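Quick check before the chapter quiz. The format below is the same one you will see on the exam, so make sure you can read both the input and the output lines.
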Amino acid sequence: MIFNKEGSTTIITQEKTTIVEFVKRLQDKYESIKTDNIIINLFSLKKFSLADLNEFLLVSNTHKLTGRSFVIVTDKISYDEVSDQITIVPTLQEAYDLVEMEEIERDLGF
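Here is the expected output.
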């Protein structure tokens, strides 16, 4: 798990572990990044399923309640397959753009 902080956003990149282990480690480290926008970069995974994505649901919902963005980057699942509770995008650039857009919305009070 690689953490890379850029301004108020932390990008977490998946290395060589299972999704369940990744989410557990994320929860263990959450206290140190809870005030940041979070981008989870899973682009390097060869296989990633909807069930894997659902492992992130609790931490995603918890984080969004703090008024911060939580975005998962993967091109293995179609946006149409995912519930509105979790945010996925196919590229890292789209994740940055989405975080920026959500920051603007929060600043404007939307």
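If your answer matched, good. The radius of gyration is 13 Å.
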